[in-house]
Design brief:
alpha/beta, globular, two-stranded parallel ribbon, two-stranded antiparallel sheet, about 10% strand
Length: about 200
């Protein structure tokens, strides 16, 4: 956990992607955490069970709802330990099976996902790399726009980076081979600044 007190009550929870983790050994998301810390934001990240210094057994095949449950447990612990206060918390348990959205042809892993998005009543920042080969950023933007974007109680900001891959790193092709073999992993120019600018307008200071 990295923490400064310039913006009390502001906290960023970093949810790691699929696979094993080792926060300390791999200095996971260190550049992102450091940037938020310099802004005075608390950042929280943890290892999955059986990874790094976490106890338990890692299960690569666990359903998404169990992964979501782990995130909710972490937030609950933070709330109970008074490390952070949450004025509003929204949680949705997810399903590992997916359906096809006939309007965008996206694979939807969350039951009634569009209804859930339409009910969000908080600011949302969506960041995409235009060379992402894992997520169709154009269709996803359309989905967000006709759900979150049409809700008067929410606000949607979309930022895209022309040279960004799935990890928002500067890329030539955005393909899987390139991501695996990439030696110079540089975040897209303006990536950190996009989040900083958005947070400054949304987080009370």
């Amino acid at each position: 956990m990295c923490r400064r007190t310039a913006l009390p009550g502001a906290l960023v929870v970093i949810i790691q992607r699929y696979g094993e983790t080792d926060v300390a050994g791999r200095t996971s998301y260190y550049d992102l955490r450091s940037h938020f810390t310099q802004l005075g934001l608390t950042t929280v990240i943890w290892d999955k069970p059986g990874c790094g210094k976490s106890e338990g057994k890692f299960d690569a095949d666990q359903p998404v709802d169990r992964s979501a449950g782990g995130v909710l447990d972490a937030i609950r612990h933070l709330r109970e330990s008074h490390e952070a206060s949450f004025s509003r918390a929204q949680a949705q348990f997810l399903s590992g099976a997916f359906q096809i959205d006939k309007k965008t042809w996206l694979q939807i892993y969350v039951p009634h996902f569009q209804d859930m998005l339409a009910r969000l009543n908080l600011p949302v920042l969506a960041i995409f790399g235009e060379k992402d080969r894992n997520v169709d950023w154009r269709r996803t933007t359309v989905l967000y726009s006709r759900t979150i974007g049409e809700n008067p109680h929410a606000s949607l900001t979309v930022r895209t980076f022309p040279d960004g891959n799935h990890n928002l790193q500067q890329a030539v092709t955005g393909g899987l081979r390139e991501m695996i073999e990439m030696k110079d992993r540089r975040m897209c120019d303006g990536y950190f600044e996009a989040m900083e600018s958005w947070l400054r307008t949304k987080v009370p200071g």
